Amino acid sequence: MKVTVVGAGNVGATVASVLAEKDICRNIILLDVVKGVAEGKALDMLQVSPLSLHETRVFGVTDNYSVTADSNVVVITSGFPRSPGMSREDLVLKNAKIVKAVTENVIAYSPKAFIIIVSNPLDAMAYVAYKTAKVPWNRVMGMAGILDKARYIAFLAAEIDCSPKDIQAIILGGHGDDMVPIKNYTTVCGIPVIQFLDDDRLDAIINRTRVGGGEIVSLLGKSAWYAPGYAAALMVEAILLGKNRIMPVSAYLQGEYGLKDMFFGVPVKIGKNGIEQVLEINLTDEEKTLIKKSAASVQSTIDIIKNNNIL
Q1: Which has the closest alpha carbon to 153: 209, 231, 197, 219?
Q2: If 0-12 CB within 10 Å is exposed, 13-18 middle and 19+ buried, where does residue 24 land?
Q3: Is residue 175 among the annotated active site residues?
Q4: For residues 142 and 125, is the Cβ–Cβ distance under 8 A?
Q5: In the chain, is it the N or the C terminus that has fewer CB atoms within a 10 Å radius of its CB?
Q6: What digits encode the pLDDT tens for the residues 103-143?
Q7: CA 155-186-276 angle, 5° bins
């Protein structure tokens, strides 16, 4: 098995490191456009193998996609963060061009690969990759809901003072501010979370989850990487090992939840064929309204890309 991670920044390097220590594939290629970065980080990871006793080999390369040939899974983390003075539209267009170019290179050398997008704005970038790759819909997906779900559960576990292992939750919608946690499906060892927290406290946790990424940026001056990297690695693992994991990811919808021709966060089953199934759940009228609002936000970003003829 072979996995390529495009982008050797903090998130990409974390994806590669987590996968290496899981020891589930033979080779990992870490690729970046900045000379020496991928090579240096890969060499550091390779030297961890005698310590953690894994056999995965990590190789770093600068902008040479031929080395990625025949990858089973490709994780794309490439892109720029929003800088001071940069408009939302400028960021969308800049990253859309990057993701399109990366996808073209990836698919040229690994036409059968599954593609996982981590680049932001997540749902729109997954759309760009899918339309560029021209592969079956189940082979392209975005890492979003797993991260939002992890933040939600982490905050809930801290508030309730219980193990995060005992909490289950479902997140729908666009990544970040547009996410929609579904209260009725949030349980603690099968017990509805509303038996542990009142509505005001639960709403406060949901709001904190929505801006969870921004909270970390305000503290560090840069985006998170441990949790996003680990989340993407779990998706790779589910595909390579055919685990049939139920996970919230950004998937291409073709009528599910009343949405068409867009990537949107929904629960899916991930296995050896990528997205094996999109799961539709019952929603309250209030939740349906929030879903429509979130979808409108995602669609507005996709429209920016379409209107500028990038696809």
Answers
A1: 209
A2: middle
A3: yes
A4: yes
A5: C
A6: 999 999 999 999 999 998 999 999 999 999 999 999 999 99
A7: 110
Catalytic residue among 139, 175, 183, 210: 175
Structural domain including 12 reads 2-142
Please indicate, yes or no, if residue 217 is contained in any of the structural domains: no
Residue 249 lies in a domain: no
Any idea what the CATH number is for the domain that residue 98 is in? Answer: 3.40.50.720
Rounded distance between C-alpha atoms, residue 79 and residue 242, angstroms? 29
Q: Is residue 112 part of a domain?
A: yes
Instruction: Give the DSSP letter string of the chain.
Output: -EEEEE--SHHHHHHHHHHHHHT--SEEEEEESSTTHHHHHHHHHHTTHHHHT---EEEEEES-GGGGTT-SEEEE----PPPTT--HHHHHHHHHHHHHHHHHHHHHH-TT-EEEE--SSHHHHHHHHHHHHT--GGGEEE--HHHHHHHHHHHHHHHHTS-GGGEE--EEESSGGGEEE-GGG-EETTEEGGGTS-HHHHHHHHHHHHTHHHHHHHHHSS---HHHHHHHHHHHHHHHTT--EEEEEEEEEESGGG-EEEEEEEEEEEETTEEEEEPP----HHHHHHHHHHHHHHHHHHHHHHHTT--
Q: How many domains is the chain partitioned into structurally? A: 1
- Tell me what pLDDT residue 88 has: 67
Q: What would the two tokens of residue 304 be?
A: 């920016």
Residue 86: per-residue pLDDT: 60
- Let me know if residue 52 belongs to a domain: yes
The encoded tokens of residue 72 equal: 């089973």
CA distance 177 to 42: 34
